[in-house]
Design goal:
This protein is mostly helical. The chain is built from 14 helices and two strands; from the N terminus they run ααββαααααααααααα. It has helices spanning about 10-30, 35-45, 90-95, 100-120, 125-140, 145-160, 170-180, 195-200, 210, 215-225, 230-250, 255-265, 275-285, 295-310, and strands spanning about 50, 60. The protein has a two-stranded antiparallel ribbon. The protein is extended, with a radius of gyration of 33 Å.
Length: about 325
């Protein structure tokens, strides 16, 4: 006769179902039951049916657990793994030239130079400010140094009326992507300036941009991944840009910079990439940008130096 308090029926069923699930799993892999499962099996068989004295005369089921003290769990088996050579002391002993004071001082000087660029940016054209924010965002190893400056720049960008925006596709798409990326409200209707067909989601009339403005198509492609549900214009834009950019790389020198950028974007859009790996790739592309307007030496030096300092620093 059991002297334990009755357990609710649903709890009894829970223990029984859990036991059956475990045994089924073990039998599936053709492994014998371990000692804990065997003990649980004995406990389940100790379910006793006791006569109830309650007025409803229903049978109550009691789960009695084994009180045996002779159970000795098996010792955990060792895989005999050898200690790693990369212990804490060894890692701390690794030295890098980028941890020296001269590099730290140079990085601080370059950082102040980039901050000065932001201070002067209020006199820049909108497109130049957009490119500065975009480059720093893609050089994600340094963007955390300029949170406040980027916020001020984005506030300036969002306050720019649509009528003041240069009407090329690259500028409009880049502005749209940067603002959406940082949570600003911006409507897909900014793309309606390309004609009434955009309003119906029909983008075939911009096919001429395939050769005249590949960077604009690429910018629109990246912006389309920030679409919200039901934004048909951006959904159509993504389909159009993928089709035409694929056609472009099939007829273009694969070693050209624009072709490499298009292939990289079609492989995986910027929004879906791991920031650290994207920074490494973008640094190599940014270094080969030919014009001084597109590649700022100060910004590039700081990004490269900061990337090496973080990569070489021991953890």
């Amino acid at each position: 006769m059991c002297h334990h308090q009755p357990l609710p029926m649903n709890e009894i069923k829970f223990h029984i179902n859990r036991f059956h699930s475990a045994t089924n799993m073990m039998s599936h892999y053709h492994q014998p039951l371990s000692q804990p499962f065997k003990d649980q099996q004995r406990s389940i068989h100790l379910i006793t049916q006791c006569n109830s004295t309650s007025t409803n005369r229903h049978e109550n089921y009691h789960l009695c657990t084994s009180t045996s003290n002779d159970y000795n769990p098996e010792a955990r088996r060792s895989a005999n793994y050898q200690p790693s050579l990369w212990d804490y002391d060894f890692i701390q002993s690794l030295k890098s030239q980028y941890t020296e004071e001269q590099y730290t001082e140079r990085a601080e000087k370059l950082k102040e130079g980039v901050r000065h660029m932001f201070k002067e940016s209020h006199e820049w054209p909108l497109l130049s400010l957009l490119k500065l924010v975009d480059v720093i965002q893609r050089l994600t190893n340094i963007d955390h140094h300029f949170f406040d400056e980027i916020k001020v720049a984005l506030d300036t960008i969002v306050s720019t009326e649509d009528m003041d925006i240069c009407g090329d596709l690259y500028t409009i798409a880049l502005r749209f992507r940067l603002l959406r990326q940082h949570g600003y409200e911006v409507s897909q209707d900014v793309f309606l300036s390309f004609g009434d067909k955009l309003k119906r989601g029909d983008l075939k009339h911009v096919e001429k941009l395939e050769t005249e403005d590949v960077t604009g198509m690429l910018s629109l492609y990246e912006a389309s991944f920030f679409a919200s549900e039901g934004e048909d214009i951006l959904d159509e834009a993504q389909q159009l840009t993928v089709r035409h950019l694929n056609k472009f790389i099939s007829t273009t020198n694969p070693h050209s910079m624009i072709s490499k950028q298009v292939r990289h974007a079609l492989e995986l859009p910027l929004q879906w990439r791991a920031p650290r790996y994207e920074t490494s790739w973008f640094l190599s592309i940014y270094a080969h940008t030919s014009t001084a307007e597109e590649m700022d030496p100060l910004l590039f030096e700081f990004a490269k130096l900061d990337f090496n300092m973080v990569s070489k620093a021991p953890t």
